[in-house]
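My current task is to audit a protein record that another person submitted. Alongside the sequence sits a line of tokens, each denoting a local backbone shape. Where you disagree with what is written, explain briefly why. This is what I was given:
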Amino acid sequence: MPLPKDKKTVGCKWVFNVKLNSDGSMERYKARLVARGYTQTYGIDYQETFAPVAKLNTIRSLLSIAANLEWPLHQLDVKNAFLNGELEEEVFMDAPPGFEDLFGGNVCRLKKSLYGLKRSPRAWFEKFSKSVKNQGYSQGQSDHTMFIKPSGTGKVAVGPLELGLRNSRNLSRIKATHKGSRTTQCSSNRLELVRWQS
């Protein structure tokens, strides 16, 4: 679309990386389009940027409870998490490098967040917390990244990166919700049991 007269664009660049397996062998080549968010202006291109981060004490408490009660601990990795957040404000981006001729002077209007934008972490957390709350979880007061849901077999605690679960059925529900559902449109990359190392 053509750039509106009163708007400016955010630049972008390609970031190339080699993804390795745990044994050091190459898994795949990775290319990611990253916005140059440092060109955004507060009050024009974005408003609030704060996104809560899990507190170290919460993670320690969750690990301690899981170890003492012999609960299995699982980790959920959401593919390209920041790309699932929805933008509230209008953000226009230049054509990706190498595709300028295809755009013919037009620009991209972003509807979803992109790595590098100022609001990406906040947009992703809003999407994640809304999805988890829709499943009946309540947000913690001392740590806003902790979500708790009482169940028949015990409490289930969910954080943005860690899942402390006593009941594997709840784990399956969370995974199903985050795997291509219409409410979240997120797909899970890996859902694996956390390995204890001494």
